[in-house]
Amino acid sequence: xxxxxxxxxxxxxxxxxxxxxxxxxxxxxxxxxxxxxxxxxxxxxxxxxxxxxxxxxxxxxxxxxxxxxxxxxxxxxxxxxxxxxxxxxxxxxxxxxxxxxxxxxxxxxxxxxxxxxxxxxxxxxxxxxxxxxxxxxxxxxxxxxxxxxxxxxxxxxxxxxxxxxxxxxxxxxxxxxxxxxxxxxxxxxxxxxxxxxxxxxxxxxxxxxxxxxxxxxxxxxxxxxxxxxxxxxxxxxxxxxxxxxxxxxxxxxxxxxxxxxxxx
Amino acid sequence: xxxxxxxxxxxxxxxxxxxxxxxxxxxxxxxxxxxxxxxxxxxxxxxxxxxxxxxxxxxxxxxxxxxxxxxxxxxxxxxxxxxxxxxxxxxxxxxxxxxxxxxxxxxxxxxxxxxxxxxxxxxxxxxxxxxxxxxxxxxxxxxxxxxxxxxxxxxxxxxxxxxxxxxxxxxxxxxxxxxxxxxxxxxxxxxxxxxxxxxxxxxxxxxxxxxxxxxxxxxxxxxxxxxxxxxxxxxxxxxxxxxxxxxxxxxxxxxxxxxxxxxx
Lengths: 264, 264
Prior knowledge:
Two copies of one chain form a homodimer. Chain A has helices at residues 5-9, 36-48, 177-183, 214-218, and strands at 13-16, 19-23, 56-64, 72-82, 86-95, 98-108, 116-117, 145-151, 163-169, 201-210, 225-230, 233-235, 238-246, 252-262. Chain A is mainly beta. The first copy, chain A, has a single domain, classed as Porin. In chain A, strands 1, 2, 3, 4, 5, 6, 8, 9, 10, 11, 12, 13 and 14 form a 13-stranded antiparallel sheet that branches. In chain A, strand 12 and strand 13 form a beta hairpin. In chain A, helix 2 packs antiparallel against helix 3 (177-183). The termini of chain A are far apart. The interface between A and B is large, with 62 and 62 residues.
């Protein structure tokens, strides 16, 4: 079976001692740089590739520090502190020896405990009843996903910024923490749900909490997952986004937050 | 006027080149370590004290990597990348040369733009109609805040984990980004709103997005602010919390998220 484009995009060549070489992907290209989700997933993949890693991803914060140019980059991972069941990591992606992304991650070995699902998935129109979405934009990465919007229209002044969207990799690929990371950045910028005018935006910081371990995630298969996202405030050049990714049987797979810059 | 206890707790002695010495505060002590909010505020204060800092805090992610012992610590700040209007920082707090906290922050010079407030504050009982809350615990830091709960009871099995709480520094102190950071960690652990049994918990990662700049924050005076917080899921030893801090006139000052470990 040929390599899935997602795996090719986040693939890393080990250079030794927590160092890896990667390369931007044309297929996951955005307007002027790579799709942020694929870059964050590549940073996470750097940790996943380290032999000293324990457990599964619990949290990831990726700060996008500068534009990323088409071409090679270096990923530098560092296990900052290892405890009994958690491990703290720092990751940097560099181009020309300058950081373009900085990330912190926590990995954890999870154990069975008392649990409670408080949040419930939104009542969204089923996947098969929603139309496939084609981005009205000359960008490539949306074509790497099947997206079907059950709520919210892109590029018009919706009464609110809440969207419900079914998302799966295209072609289909079994969900894992890396692909889930990318999906957490695949919700369209909230500002384009409140303003019809398209203007430059850029994610500044992306935060993800993973609520299931690799074993539970493997049960999801190839999706699609149901994603909800909304903004709270657009103020003085920055807006936030909060989102949830729901799996089968109403399991919350991840919650995600980001703050993004926008040009007026 | 004597120094406010908060300022004493987050105070730092410069050691040169982005290095500072701090000391844990007895007044903001939790069960077995300092109140996490004061530690995160101290990390932010390290950046605020750096002369090369531009703009105001936009985002802060603080990862709590290991228990902090009573005594001195070192704060190491590093401006990782400075752009035209944003600046990316990394902060570490160390004890005995080992990191106990790692943080990433973004600072930004904000400018007037089109804006929209989508989220609205909860309809909460007014501050004066709520009873002052006394924590039923032998811990000190809650005494450094005036807290009045308008929704949710601590230590009982509430039907959900959503709380509305008025919070102000005690004694009162004009709000700034450092004190707002601490307040973002001052909501009681969500698990104690769903289980009556008190068991060990620890915040692993705290994330804050600041939605106003220093000028707007200064208008808030000494509060109180209205804080909403809830959990989405408790699963396999970890639960999340999302919160909002509302100022006067329904302005969203900050949104915050954290993931915490719990012992069964």
